[in-house]
Each structure stands twice: as C-alpha cells, then as structure tokens.
Automatic annotation (TrEMBL):
Gene3D superfamilies: Aldehyde Dehydrogenase, Chain A, domain 1, Aldehyde Dehydrogenase, Chain A, domain 2. PANTHER family: ALPHA-AMINOADIPIC SEMIALDEHYDE DEHYDROGENASE. Transmembrane segments: none annotated. Residues 34-489 form the Aldehyde dehydrogenase domain. This is Aldehyde dehydrogenase family protein. Keywords: NAD, Oxidoreductase.
Length: 509
C-alpha cells in the first residue's frame, strides 16, 4: 500500500510535533494506547501511555501531600511559580501556539492568542497574590473585632475540553496556585500533547524558583481517569469544562461527597440586532463570533435575532463575508476557518442542519464539506440558516459553525427569544439606542453570565469573571472575584477585652 499525500503530511506534522515537544522541554512520550490525533489530516501524530485509575489515585495522593506544605507558603511567594510560568510561556509562545494548532486545529492567530491569554491570567494571578482580601466588620460587642480570612482550599481537580486545550487550564491553575492549592489536571484525551507541554513548563517553573514541582499533577486518559477526580474526597474542588451531559454526571457525584464544583458547560449564545445598529460593525462582530474556531467555542454565536426591518441588509453583509472565508489547513497563511475536531462533530452539524430544514428553515449559505483534505479530516463551510421560529434544534447547542437567524418586531419579544433556551453563557446586543442597551443589561434583560453591547459573544478578557447561568453551570473562572472559588472562608471574632459579652445581648447564668 502506497502512502497518500495525507499520510506524508501527517508524518511531517508528527515530526514537527516531536520537535516542538523537545523545544518545550517535554520528554519524548513512550508509545502507548492514547492517540494524539491532528484534525488537520485526521491522522495520528504519536501515541502516549494512558493513566489507569490507580495512577490517578497516586497523583491525587501526591497533590494532597504537597498541599500540606504549599498552603503555608506566603501567597506573594507562591506567585513566584506563576511569574516564572508567564516568562516561559512568553519565551515559547510561538511553539506552544503551533502545538495547539496541530492538536486542536485552530488557525495560528487564535492559537497564539490562546497562549497570550495564559500569560494574561498569570499576570492577573501575580497581582492577586497580594490582594486575597478579607473584610473587617463592626462587632456589636465592645472590645471585639469581627473579620473574615481566606485560606487555601486543598487539591483542585481540573477537567478541560479540547477547544481551549491550554487557556482554561491556565485560568484555573494560575489562580489555584496563588490561592495555595495544588492541582491535578485531566485534559481532553484529544489534546494530550499540549497538556504534556504545559505540565512540563509548569514543573520547570516550580523547580526554577525552588518550589515543590509536586504542586501540579497531570493524568492522561479517558473518562474513567477523570472519574477519580470526581469521586475522591481528597479533591476539594472539581473545575470541569465540557458538555451539559458531562455536567449532569459530574455535579451530583461531587455533591454526594460534599465537594465543590465549578462548572463551565454548554453555551447556545444569542445576539440581538436592532434597527439602530451599525450594521457594518455588527456584521464584523457576528462573523468572527459565529465562524471563528470553526464554531467550536463555548461562546460561539449560534442564534442571531434581527429586527425584521434590517434582516435583509444585515444578512447580505454576513452571508457575503461567509462566502469569502477561506477554509483550509490552519497552518496556511490566509486561512480563517480550520477543521472540525473529528467526524462526530461533522455528523452532528449535518444532522442539525437537516433538522432545521425539516422545521421550515432556509439554508442561506454553507454547510457543505470541503474536499481535498482526506477522508479522516473534516473541513466545512460555516452555515447560515434562516428559521421561522426557535424550534427544538435551535434551542440545542450544536458544537459546529451553524448560525440560526430569527426575526422580531418588538424588543421585549427579542429578549424573550434570546432567553428562551436552556443555556445562559454569553450574549450581545447591537444597538445605538441607550435604552435598549441598558434594558439588555438589566435584571429583566439578558439572563446570561456575559452580556455585551456592540461586540460579539466571544473573545472575553481575563479581567472579568467568565461563566454562565442555567445549564451553563453557574461557575465563574478567570478574573474579578473568581479566586474565591479556590479558597475557604473563615469568620473570626477576636475578643481583646477582659469581659465576655454574648451576641444578641444573651444573658447566660
């Protein structure tokens, strides 16, 4: 059997992946049963050993042992590990970004942007290490001080998804480390190489500043390995990113042992476009939010709710831009849309479009598979489908580039349409009317964790808390006061008097 062009390209990509791992300081993986596949060709770059449940148990044990010392290290000193990690990420931004492209299929600009997001959250965490503030409250009792203190929580289990294989890990890990926690990371089994690279960089950072490298553990494998993090009482917090189905499995199992959960699940994000909107600006925001990362972001725009008076000119702009999007190998210059992660994602996209058309939808453009990349690689043109109503398929999240377009006449009806889905992650309104903008941000407006005005639904900055409501899970990561999820709070009362008054004026004895 002769090699095809796809086979030759896969071999070239495999060699490049090995070279990148070497440059990043990661050990050459021993061949095993866990494939590292590239969606660029659908071929396998290399295989790695998969951890067993016993391996996971041992990793949790090492993290728990390391926590006992790590929690007593002053927070600004703990930040030294994160500071060094940021330096290493900066030095190796291009290499790690390229590895993300090889494993996740992101175009270069998005892959490098994801690494930059890691650097940004490290910088945030470094400053945070001197701002883990507790409150001092007035006591009703004379000679008493009432305050709260925040303490390290314990072992944090991080379960991450393929679409952001490194940034979401960094969101959790940078904060957890400065908060005094240790981390056990179970990455997606489709992106094991980027995980190995990040684990190597973090352990190097710890060693460089004289910290215990055991503060971070990596376990690789399938769901059976991740289930150890969910079940083990030594894991104080499970931060899990993935599907709603996954969240329904994780949350009750963690709750049953009285552990903490931080869930980042599905997003079926919507944007409203009003008659006063700047349509050129709206079109640019819509195209990136809906087609970027081949629709494989949790913040991808999936539902466009447009006033009937402007739907025609807006769709002309958006569809025109869609037809010009270059779909192809994400390593090539000028490509804006790379591959779907696998064939299952493509089948899900086609099934959703078929259901939408059966519900009376009209395919405006896109949806077809792009040929020329081999049988095992799945490149598609982003699709736009006009819908007569918000049917069941529109209310579900399909993790692929499908943009459903609905129309409205009344702004209240637009908000009802927007909120009429089970998910609640990210949202946007495009308008020049301040009343509409403020209404969208008000308590009876968007019911999402992220609500934007005149920008798209994707591209969140690390300074704000990231997360959503309803089936999105309610968790918050990244900026603002998200750090509190990684710590435990203690309320303290200090009596500095020589008397012992009771609260509420109680007399006893």
């Amino acid at each position: 059997m002769t090699d095809t062009l796809d086979d030759h390209l896969t071999k070239d990509l495999a060699a490049r992946a090995a070279e990148l791992l070497h440059t990043l300081g990661a050990p050459t993986p021993v061949a095993g049963e866990l494939p590292a596949r590239t969606p660029i060709t659908g071929g396998t770059l290399m295989t790695l050993p998969a951890d067993s449940r016993d391996d996971a148990d041992a990793a949790i044990g090492r993290a728990a042992a390391a926590f006992r010392g790590w929690r007593t290290v002053p927070a600004p000193v703990r930040a030294g590990v994160v500071r060094r990690l940021a330096e290493l990420l900066t030095a190796h931004k291009a290499e790690l970004g390229e590895l993300v492209t090889l494993e996740a299929g992101k175009i270069g600009a998005e892959a490098v942007g994801e690494v930059q997001e890691m650097i940004d959250i490290c910088e945030f965490a470094i400053g945070l290490s001197r701002q883990l503030y507790g409150k001092t409250m007035p006591s009703e009792r004379p000679g008493h001080r009432l305050m709260e203190t925040w303490h390290p929580l314990g072992v944090v289990g991080v379960i991450s998804a393929f679409n952001f294989p490194v940034a979401v890990w960094a969101w959790n890990t940078a904060l957890a480390l400065v908060c005094g926690d240790t981390v056990v990371w179970k990455p997606s089994d489709t992106t094991p190489l980027t995980a190995l690279a990040c684990h190597t960089l973090l352990r190097r950072a710890a060693a460089d500043v004289g910290a215990d490298p055991e503060v971070h553990q990596l376990i690789q494998g399938g769901a059976e390995v991740g289930s150890r993090l969910v079940e083990d009482e030594r894991v104080a917090l499970v931060s899990a990113t993935g599907s709603v189905r996954m969240g329904r499995t994780v949350a009750p199992r963690v709750a049953a042992r009285f552990g903490r959960c931080l869930l980042e699940l599905g997003g079926n994000n919507g944007a409203i476009v009003t008659p006063t909107a700047d349509l050129e600006l709206a079109a640019r925001g819509i195209v990136f939010a809906a087609a970027g990362t081949a629709g494989q972001r949790c913040t991808t725009l999936r539902r466009l709710i447009v006033h009937a008076d402007v739907v025609g000119p807006l769709l002309d702009r958006v569809a025109g831009a869609y037809r010009q999007l270059r779909v192809g190998n994400p390593l090539d210059d000028g490509v804006l849309v790379g591959p779907l992660v696998n064939g299952r994602a493509y089948e899900g996209m086609r099934a959703a479009i078929d259901r939408a058309l059966a519900d009376g939808g009209e395919l405006v453009c896109g949806g077809e598979r792009v040929d020329g990349f081999g049988d095992d690689a799945f490149y598609v043109r982003p699709a736009i489908v006009r819908m007569p109503a918000q049917t069941a398929v529109v209310r579900e999240e399909t993790f692929a580039p499908i943009l459903y377009v609905l129309t409205y006449r009344d702004f209240d009806a637009a908000i009802d349409l927007h909120n009429g889905v089970p998910q609640g992650l990210s949202s946007a309104v495009f308008t020049a009317d301040q009343r509409e903008a403020e209404r969208f941000l008000a308590a009876d407006g968007s019911d999402c964790g992220i609500a934007n005005v005149n920008i798209g639904t994707s591209g969140a900055e690390i300074g704000g808390a990231f997360g959503g409501e309803k089936q999105t899970g309610g968790g918050r990561e990244s900026g603002s006061d998200s750090w509190q999820a990684y710590m435990r709070r203690a309320t303290n009362t200090v009596n500095y008097s020589d008397r012992l008054p009771l609260a509420q004026g109680i007399q006893f004895g």
